[in-house]
Amino acid sequence: MNTTKKDIRALSKEELRTFFTTNGDKAFRGTQVYEWLWQKGAHHFDDMTNLSKETRQMMDDNFSINHIKVDSMQRSSDGTIKNGIRLHDGMIVESVLIPTAKRSTACVSSQVGCSLDCKFCATSRLKRMRNLNPDEIYDQVVAIDKQSKLYYNRPLSNIVFMGMGEPLMNYNNVLKAIDKITSKEGLGMSPKRIVVSTSGVPKMIKKMADDKVKFNLAVSLHSAIDSVRTSIMPFNETFPLKDLREALQHWYAATSRIITYEYVVWEGINDTKTDIEALISFCKFAPSKVNLIEYNPIDDGVFQQAGNAAIDLYVSMLEAKNITVTVRRSRGKDIDAACGQLANKDKAS
Ligand code: SAH
User: Fold this and answer.
1) How far is the CA of 166 from the centre of ligand 1 (A)?
2) Whose CA is nearest to atom 3 of ligand 1?
3) Which residues line ligand 1 (CB under 6 A)?
4) Residue 152 sits in the same domain as residue 296
5) Which residue lies with its CA nearest to atom 21 of ligand 1?
6) Is residue 342 a part of any domain in this protein?
7) Which domain holds residue 124?
8) What is the pLDDT along the chain (349 residues), one digit of tens a residue?
9) Is 101 in the same domain as 42?
10) Are 158 and 51 in the same domain?
11) Looking at ligand 1, which residue's alpha carbon is closest to its atom 7?
12) Domains in the chain: how many in total?
């Protein structure tokens, strides 16, 4: 780690080009370096073989390349791979590769820890330490893409921002990372294959809509009744369902893209007909679909996944109102890599 030199990857292509012209070289040199950093994933200036030795040395004197490092790797019996990622300042986040028959999905983190306090989520027990930089987000995707090629012989097909942190509370950096993931100079992935999942920050959902982003939106709803939602997701007090609903209507009006609601059904919390009816009413405000996700226990037994009867009731009542509903099974549970289980458990930090 080097804290005195500037991280070269914080520079845009234009800034790199300017650096070279002000140092008496050609702007084109900046483009070459940019390609080494982003397309070829160089970790050292010495890897940049089409630059002269002097130029490489000059770069090394001025800059560092702060790459993330895969610090630990656990493989689940279902093929899911959970990575402990060490950032340049020593902090750890987790990123997961989820392979299915047709897809390879990367689940990436946007913050170290999380400032929200969802009662059912392991990450909420870690204090939010800091936001990830755009390159730290991008690097997770690159690392998982490499893993997907190595272990499953195919590149990544999808990316979900469902790891640690609340992406919309680190909006600018998430957006910059997605720009790079989707640009030709980065990974060239289609934004249609990217999902940003939020617990629902109304102001930022509106901003995203106004920014005309091209990726998909998922909202962790879990209840469409304010009192219930506040009891399990206390920030709902500050961002009540009325504001969320209004922001989602704004989203649909601006993007014409349907919203996915992530929803866990818990015994004794949101497993009654009244809960389902509230969800149905909520779904009417903007075109949406419901993803019923399995609960991944995080320890204390306060939350229990509802039984099949409750899930079946959700499915039949939603379908009766023509709302698309899918039931998603968890992946990587045996290694604590599933949704809401990311908590740096095998780390002292
Ligand atoms: N902060 C963002 C992204 C991280 S959570 C968000 O809230 O959407 C990713 C998804 O996992 C969310 O839908 C979240 O509600 C869900 N989740 C959290 N803890 C869980 C758990 N223990 N079991 C199942 N899903 C969980």
Assistant:
1) 10
2) 162
3) 120-121, 162, 166, 197-199, 220, 262, 264, 293, 295-296, 298, 339-340
4) yes
5) 340
6) no
7) 69-335
8) 445 788 898 898 999 999 999 999 999 999 999 989 888 888 899 999 999 999 999 999 999 998 899 999 999 999 999 999 999 899 999 999 999 999 999 999 999 999 999 999 988 888 899 999 999 999 999 999 999 999 999 999 999 999 999 999 999 999 999 999 999 878 899 999 999 999 999 999 999 999 999 999 999 999 999 999 999 999 999 999 999 999 999 999 999 999 999 999 999 999 999 999 999 999 999 999 999 999 988 877 789 999 999 999 999 999 999 999 999 877 777 777 777 777 776 543 3
9) no
10) no
11) 199
12) 2
Question: 52: helix, coil or strand?
Answer: coil
Task: Give the DSSP letter of residue 68.
Answer: -
- CATH code assigned at 41: 1.10.150.530
Strands, E, within 32-112: which ranges?
A: 63-64, 69-75, 81-86, 92-99, 104-107, 111-112
- Supply the residue whose CA is at minimum distance from atom 19 of ligand 1: 340
CA distance 326 to 32: 46
Residues carrying an active site annotation: 94, 339
Kindly give the distance from the C-alpha atom of residue 153 to the centroid of ligand 1, in angstroms, as a whole number: 29
Q: What is the CA radius of gyration of the chain?
A: 22
Nearest to 277 by CA among 226, 244, 229, 317: 317
| Residue 256 belongs to some domain of the structure | yes
Cα 220 to ligand 1 centre (Å): 7
Nearest atom, ligand 1, residue 116 CA = 1
Q: Does 269 lie in the same domain as 245?
A: yes
Residue 47 domain-assigned (yes or no):
yes
Burial class (CB in 10 A: 0-12, 13-18, 19+), 252: middle
Cα 3 to ligand 1 centre (Å): 34
